[in-house]
Amino acid sequence: MKVPAEATALHHSREWWALFLWSDEWRNDVKTKLEYIWLDGYEPTPNLRSKTKIVAFDGEPTLEDVPVWNFDGSSTRQAEGSSSDCFLQPVALFPDPGRANAMLVMCEVLLPDGTPHPSNSRASIPDDPDAWFGFEQEYFLYKDGRPLGFPADGFPGPQGEYYTGVGYKNVGDVAREIVDTHIDLCLAAGINLEGVNAEVAKGQWEFQIFGKGSRRAADEVWIARYLLLRLCERYGIDINFHPKPLGVEHDWNGSGMHCNFSTNRMREVGGEEYFAALMTAFDDHKDDHIAVYGPDNHMRLTGLHETAAIGEFTHGVANRGASIRIPWSFVQNGYRGYLEDRRPNSLGDPYCIAGRILQTITEADMALAVDEAVAA
User: Fold this and answer.
1) Does residue 84 sit in helix, strand or coil?
2) Angle at 301 between CA 296 and CA 303, to 5 degrees
3) pTM of whole model > 0.85?
4) Which of 369, 359, 363, 366 lies closest to 128 in space, CA to CA?
5) Helix or strand or coil: residue 32?
6) 353 lies in some domain
7) Within its chain, how far is the Cα of 117 from the centroid?
8) pLDDT given at position 30
9) Which end of the chain has less Cβ packing within 10 Å, N or C?
């Protein structure tokens, strides 16, 4: 299908927003359900929002085919009622495995003039397709206000057998069905989900997403979260992403979203000197990282339960109690490969997390380039 010329000038027109209404030349008898998905303006953590638009296409739509749409920003903490229109700019497109003739449309929120809304955390982050990210999203399944499998009063048996556990006493009778269905939904949607497992606490699970580029990797995490939330609606189960839902006073693990990362230089060049420069940069910016690694992280980063203390920066080989865990393979390969930042929590915005990591690496690279130029 040929894209109208005016659509290619979408961001260059003062009346770009008018194009969310399709002209007759785009319409035919093939109807597609487009599920527009975006992040609202709630703080400190945005919620996922979505609504469905039915559009006629000549065949399967591409991202460029999907129209800009609007919504009532006064109902999502993104506008005042007196000027409530916000706009949804499609940025990523996925098949919707839960509905026939349907697509999932990840969107950025724009102001009426076409500029990014202040709540739009995706638009301003640095991006590099050679920067690879692997997010480990932990979460709790919740039923009747408590983790799935917890008794109405008190606690189940202590942590120990639940991690990667098998059997009814460890995972119950519905959790694995939800998790396995979520795998199928993500794969059918084209999401690069690389694994799942039961986690340390009862009712706690994890899925892992790998992506190239900070935006693409984070898009897939948000869509995977969306599919999980939507799936659990039919079970009467909620997903609790809070990093410490059981509180700090109890001896139960919290939930993180560890971020594995590498750049082309880390994978291909590396070296102990470069690694040391990276760690210095991460130490220098430790407060900047914590600021975007998710709310209430002070409850989780205590130095206990496989975490580093929130006020310090540490790194260590195979050390799950460090801020950054260094895989043995990284050292054995001449300090080349990926590293794992264990500080991001399960409520964190993956756009902000990946963007901050890439920004720190870029600044370290620039500082090294200056030093090398001076030395030459």
Assistant:
1) coil
2) 155
3) yes
4) 359
5) strand
6) yes
7) 19
8) 82
9) C
